[in-house]
Design brief:
Number of domains: 1
CATH topology: Methylamine Dehydrogenase, Chain H
Distance between the termini: 24 Å
Structural class: mainly beta
Number of helices: 0
Largest sheet: 5 strands, antiparallel
Helix content: under 10%
Radius of gyration: 19 Å
Strand content: over 45%
Shape: globular
Number of strands: 30
């Protein structure tokens, strides 16, 4: 395990304050009240010191999720293009960063070429001690037990075409799965493990392709971001209906989304434009727009320390920002940071996918911020 902690970085674009240590980027009403020139990142001196630890993981790492009840970090991995024959669901000890358990998905019954039900997207359901995964290649979803990673249920192939992200609303017994192959968010009952009517997203023009999902449980709002139309959709989880649509001006390849329930803000990361846009959840007003790094793929917001983390897959960095938008650090993760999970203490867990030019991947990087 590699460890390095440095003092406050200079808040300039491209600064590399920390050195620590995609699978698939998956391209798979309401005009915004955006100002003509959205404010950029604040330039105040950073007040957070950020440290990072890293450890190697099996090849093909993709997404991560932290279970507060099991005190385990779970991760998915899958290697190559169809037929995908190597994939694992991993359980990681957060203290040592060591893999303590793993499971190989079952063969895909509808194929004869050895492809398995490879796992990509990931979410934990702590209410039922389960782990949900998306099987992107087969267009399916699977549920595993947290304790021993045994399979609880494998849904049929084609249940969710090109299934990408999965998100659990444990209080309302719902699992939401995005499908960039359609304009539909698929819904499952997480108690009975049965499919429910999906949620159709309606955009201003062409059909949206939903990517990442975010939940504001306090306000019963589910948010989805569209890859192809630079739009954000708000869904009332009580009715399962779309209630708002906001455009995100100036971004290309929007793919990541996170919500700050307290301040009622949305964070949108965009791959092709390499930036982060902050919106007001109440009316879609653009509050900030700032460059973070090439291939800004995912974003996570930590309500404990009130920091946002942006995984810049192309740049090989994670940008850490405070709630004012001031950059606190650029963490050099190397390779291709693909996904960020948070634990209840506010630590960020970054899944880093190996690139051809970086021999350090695949690995997990744990980022901790302190004042």
């Amino acid at each position: 395990m590699n460890t390095l902690s440095l003092p406050h970085p200079a808040p300039r674009r491209g600064a590399r304050a920390l050195l620590a240590g995609a699978a698939l980027a998956l391209a798979a009403g309401c005009a915004s009240n955006a100002p003509a020139t959205p404010p950029s990142a604040a330039t105040a001196t950073p007040v957070w010191t950020v440290s990072a630890q890293s450890a190697s993981l099996p090849p093909g790492v993709y997404q991560g999720a932290y279970s507060a009840t099991a005190q385990r970090l779970y991760a998915t991995s899958a290697i190559g293009r169809p037929p995908v024959k190597e994939s694992r669901l991993l359980a990681i000890d957060p203290a040592s960063l060591r893999v303590v358990d793993s499971a190989v998905p079952a063969p895909q019954a509808s194929r004869t070429d050895g492809q398995v039900q490879a796992v990509y997207g990931l979410a934990v359901d702590d209410a039922r001690s389960q782990v949900w995964t998306t099987n992107t290649r087969s267009g399916s979803v699977a549920v595993y037990r947290q304790a021993d990673l045994s399979l609880v249920k494998q849904f049929p192939d084609g249940a969710v075409p090109h299934a990408r992200d999965v998100l659990i609303d444990a209080e309302h017994h719902r699992a939401y799965v995005s499908s960039p192959a359609s304009n539909l968010i698929h819904v499952f009952d997480s108690a009975t493990l049965q499919p429910l009517p999906g949620i159709t997203l309606t955009g201003a023009g062409e059909a949206p392709k939903p990517m990442s999902l975010a939940l504001d449980a306090a306000r019963q709002r589910l948010y989805a971001v569209s890859l192809n139309t630079a739009e954000v959709f708000a869904i009332d989880t009580a009715t399962g209906r779309q209630t708002a649509r906001y455009t995100v001006p100036g971004v290309r390849g929007a793919s990541g989304i996170a919500v700050d329930s307290q301040a009622q803000r949305l964070y949108v990361a965009a791959q092709k434009s390499g930036d982060l846009t902050v919106l007001d959840t109440r009316d879609g007003t653009v509050l900030q727009h700032l460059a973070t790094g090439a291939g800004a793929l995912n974003v996570a917001f930590d309500p404990v320390r009130r920091l946002a983390y942006v995984a810049n897959r192309g740049a090989g960095t994670v940008t850490v920002l405070d709630e004012t938008g001031a950059i606190q650090a650029q963490v050099d993760t190397g390779s291709a940071p693909n996904h960020i999970a948070l634990d209840p203490q506010g630590n960020a867990w970054v899944m880093v996918k190996k690139s051809k030019s970086d021999p350090r991947g695949d690995r997990v990087v744990r980022i901790e911020a302190r004042r």
